[in-house]
Write a structure and sequence with these properties.
single chain, mainly alpha, Serine Threonine Protein Phosphatase 5, Tetratricopeptide repeat, 2 domains
């Protein structure tokens, strides 16, 4: 049975990613050097054969080095398996946005947020990316209202997994019972956690938190 090989450049080449651009530059440099060396070593075969060998060496080196660099730029083996992979045959690992994380670690919050906003604009259905950006707004920017909207958007994204809903709901509870100071909406999220994620630690904590809210005269249980 023949299997088609899919090379998905559009999905992997994000020209707004500085790490990817640096990887591309190094890939071209290494490929040119390799092609030049092969031409030098094969000049004894004649100029025509040497040029052909050099071009082949350039192309092969570019494919190998670019594929490896692309995998490293995306933060995991995800880049390599989706760069050249049988159609529908791989299970990519989640992206870790390592470049943006490095900016955050250096205190360049505005730059990290700008890059993440561009990524989300280009990948509007990426629930994990939306959650990550929401968390950046909540923890690094201190914009709880923006974080709230993004957490809600993440779990409403088509194809969002149950784990995405769990994470978004957990963080919304933190926001409503913390900086947003909205116990009523906090209680709604606690009840959602208990209803949609039974048997989890989140559901167990939700029960305890709801009891405390009722004891303090907050929103009543809506079973």
């Amino acid at each position: 049975m023949r299997r088609r090989i899919r090379i998905d450049f559009a999905a992997r080449l994000d020209l707004g990613d500085p790490a990817l651009m640096r990887a591309a530059g190094w890939s071209l440099l290494v490929s040119v050097l390799c092609g030049g060396l092969v031409i030098y070593w094969t000049l004894g075969w004649g100029v025509g054969w040497a040029m052909l060998a050099g071009v082949l060496a350039f192309v092969l080196t570019l494919v190998v080095v670019a594929g490896t660099a692309l995998a490293l730029a995306s933060g995991s083996a995800q880049g390599l398996t989706s760069f050249v992979a049988p159609s529908g045959g791989s299970s990519p690992l989640p992206a870790d946005w390592s470049y943006e994380k490095s900016l955050l670690a250096r205190g360049q919050v505005d730059d990290a947020v700008s890059l993440l906003e561009v990524r989300l604009a280009n990948h509007a259905d990426d629930a994990a990316l939306c959650l990550f950006l929401a968390d950046v707004y909540a923890r690094s920017v201190g914009d709880a209202a923006k974080a709230e909207r993004l957490f809600r958007r993440a779990r409403e994204t088509p194809g969002a997994a149950k784990a995405h809903d769990y994470q978004a709901t957990t963080r919304l509870i933190d926001l409503y019972l913390g900086p947003l100071d909205d116990p009523a909406r906090g209680a709604e999220e606690l009840e959602r956690m208990r209803r949609l994620h039974p048997g989890t630690q989140g559901a167990l904590h939700a029960d305890t938190a709801l009891q405390r809210l009722r004891a303090s005269g907050g929103p009543s249980d809506r079973r």
